[in-house]
Amino acid sequence: MSDADAAVDDDTAPLADVNPERTPVVLFDGVCNLCHGAVRFLVRHDDAGVFRFAPLDSPVGRALLERHGLPTADYDSVVLIDDAGAHRKSAAALRVARRLDSPWNLAWALRVVPRRIRDAVYDLVAEYRYGVFGRKDACEVPEPEVRERFLERSLE
User: Fold this and answer.
1) What is the pLDDT of residues 84-134, one digit of tens each?
2) Confidence of residue 147 (pLDDT cuts 50, 70, 90)
3) Which has the closest alpha carbon to 61: 52, 114, 21?
4) Binning pLDDT at 50, 70 and 90, where does residue 76 land?
5) Phi and psi (nearest 5°) for 86?
6) Bridge-based pairing state of the strands 52-55 and 85-88
7) CA 70, CA 99: separation in Å to the nearest integer?
């Protein structure tokens, strides 16, 4: 067995139990209060439990970013990894909204707004999110009832 095969078989490998094609993964800024609020919102409005979550700077987050050729040190964007690949900024937010419970799924209609405009608004919010919403010293531990939806086991 090669080293690569051993890494795939190793249960400690960050992506051992991760399958974004089956269960989409939302990567978020683990210290951002706005991002934590957004994740709590997603959990509440995703009755089917479609999404899994991981901080961008976690081993799972970094491994998924690397797999999709995205920078591993830029935490200014939410990233959705699903069966269609990796999506950032407004594209990620709208693709997530599309799979939420009604009426939140209606936000998918905003995809008709040109991406450059959507992303400009996204970037403005991202630039000021810490100043307006604050930040944590570390990623908070999820509540027990939703912990299984978080892929980063170090949060337990």
Assistant:
1) 999 999 999 999 999 999 999 999 999 999 999 999 999 999 999 989 989
2) low
3) 52
4) confident
5) -105, 135
6) unpaired
7) 23
pLDDT in tens, 6-18: 444 444 577 777 8
pTM: 0.81
Domain boundaries, the chain: 17-146
Q: In whole angstroms, what is the distance from residue 38 CA to residue 155 CA? A: 17
CA distances from 98 to 95, 103, 109, 138 (A): 5, 10, 9, 30
The rounded distance, in Å, linking the Cα atoms of 39 and 152 is 14
Tokens read off for 88: 């950032």
State the CB neighbour count (10 A cutoff) for residue 13: 15
Q: Which tokens in the block code for residue 38?
A: 């957004």
